[in-house]
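Homework help board

Subject: predicted structure for assignment chain

Our instructor gave us this sequence and asked us to write out the predicted structure in C-alpha cell form, then describe one feature. I got the C-alpha cells but I'm not sure how to describe them. Can anyone check?
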Amino acid sequence: MIIYDNDNQYHSSTNGSGDGETTAAVTSNDSQAAAENTGQEEVAEADNASETKIFKDWTGHEVEVPTNPQRVIYHGEVTGYLLALGVVPVGILKNEGTVFDDQVADADDVGFPISVEKSLSLNPDLIIFSNDDETQYEQISKIAPTVTFNSFWPLEERMRFLGDLMPCTW
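My C-alpha cell output:
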C-alpha cells in the first residue's frame, strides 16, 4: 500500500503480504524454469491487479484505491484527461460533440447527477468524481473506491493528480 500526503507524495510502501517481492526457486531444468516463469508472470499480474495505495483526494478523503484500476468511472467535465493517460473509462458524464466521442463510444453515461444505480451496474474498481458534493460522494463511495477531483485546478495540477492516481497506459 502506498500512502500519499496532501501533495500526493508517497511515504511508505507495502502490499500487505510481507516484503512485497515474489521469489522463485531456480532449477537446472529449462522447461521447468519456463513453466515457473509463466506462473510467476500470472501471479505478478494478479498481484498488480490487487495492489492498493492510500490516496488523499481533493476534498481530504483518504481512499484505498487500486494501483492499476481496470474499470474506471469518470464523472467530470473533460474525459480527455483520462484518455491522455491511456485510460478509457467504462462510465462517464457524456458530453456529445467532443473530439474524442469515438474513443468513448463504448462508455456508458452515468448521468448528472451521477446515477448510483447505473454506476453500480458498471462494476467499477475506481470512481473519479469531479465534485465536492458530500451527499453524492457518500452514496457512490459505497459502490467502489471514490476519489474527488478538482477539474478547475490548473492543467498541470489536474494531470499530475490523475497521473499519481493511475498509471499511464501508453
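Reply (TA_rk): Your C-alpha cells look well-formed. For the description, you could write something like this. The longest strand covers residues 52-56. That's the kind of observation they're looking for.
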